[in-house]
């Protein structure tokens, strides 16, 4: 299995793990070369922590890095403004977004700042997120500050 | 003492607390009305956690909130792109920046998105940060991804 495929699968598994814990089904990994160096998922419910979106949790898990210029961030759902700002601040050059049909809008912000953005829109990710939003609309609104 | 003055003093004290722990001297508080509801400081060194800038740590400390529309975020140093993105994402309407002479540049990003930005440039904050940058340039560069 390629690292690209492994990262996409890991995002899905981490999202489902979070869902199983009663949390938001959003997962993310940070990769360098052929290794995953950070794994994360949303922990708003699990830790009562509003800043731990999936992407932030993957960066937390990776710990201190000298540079992010040789890394790729994978995320099950398109990054919000917090996570997009973080990608730019950390100078992560490439982001793979597994789906942006249920949430998106910051792709252009990233592209304008030199980030390469790849959107997959794999059906399993779209379905997982749509089901969650239908089942738990209040929790979803809280997570995107609506 | 007014809540405004109390928040500014708390930012300074939290920054100094972090410095005493060997960390970056950047502190932040989130206030609602006349109460401080979140206190934080940079924890890159202390927890090996690159996402815990002062502002992020204050939001973590405040925990889940229904809304941030009636809150004010105070920070000892001007917010980086991660923290500025977070302020916009969380819809925090007002930010008080104790100094932006040693680091800044995202004030316009915030203002353009409707955030009220107040810059104090109190000398004790400017001096504290300048001294740290002079003493620990490598750690400072790491924190701003230079």
TrEMBL record, chains A, B:
Gene3D superfamilies with a match to the protein in the record: Cytidine Deaminase, domain 2
A Pfam family assignment: dCMP_cyt_deam_1
Annotated metabolic or biological route of this protein: Pyrimidine metabolism
Main location: cytoplasm
Alphabetical list of InterPro entries matching this protein: APOBEC/CMP_deaminase_Zn-bd, CMP_dCMP_dom, Cytidine_deaminase-like
Subcellular location: Cytoplasm
Domain CMP/dCMP-type deaminase: start-end pairs: 2-117
GO biological process: nucleobase-containing small molecule metabolic process; pyrimidine-containing compound metabolic process
Entry keywords, A to Z: Cytoplasm, Hydrolase, Metal-binding, Zinc
Source species, domain of life: Bacteria
GO annotation, cellular component aspect: cytoplasm
A molecular-function term among this protein's GO annotations: diaminohydroxyphosphoribosylaminopyrimidine deaminase activity
Cofactor(s) recorded in Swiss-Prot or TrEMBL: Zn(2+)
Quaternary structure and partners: Homodimer.
Protein name from the UniProt record: tRNA-specific adenosine deaminase
């Amino acid at each position: 299995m390629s690292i690209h495929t492994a990262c996409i699968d890991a995002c899905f598994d981490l999202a489902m793990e979070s869902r199983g814990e009663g949390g938001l089904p959003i997962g993310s990994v940070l990769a360098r070369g052929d290794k995953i160096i950070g794994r994360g998922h949303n922990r708003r419910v699990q830790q009562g922590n509003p800043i731990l979106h999936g992407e932030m949790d993957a960066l937390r898990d990776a710990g201190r890095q000298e540079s992010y210029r040789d890394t790729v961030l994978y995320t099950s759902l398109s990054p919000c403004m917090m996570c997009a700002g973080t990608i730019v601040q950390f100078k992560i050059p490439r982001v793979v977004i597994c789906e942006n049909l249920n949430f998106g809008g910051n792709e252009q912000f990233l592209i304008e700042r030199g980030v390469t953005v790849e959107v997959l829109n794999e059906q399993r990710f779209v379905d997982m997120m749509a089901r969650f939003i239908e089942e738990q609309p209040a929790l979803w609104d809280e997570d995107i500050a609506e």
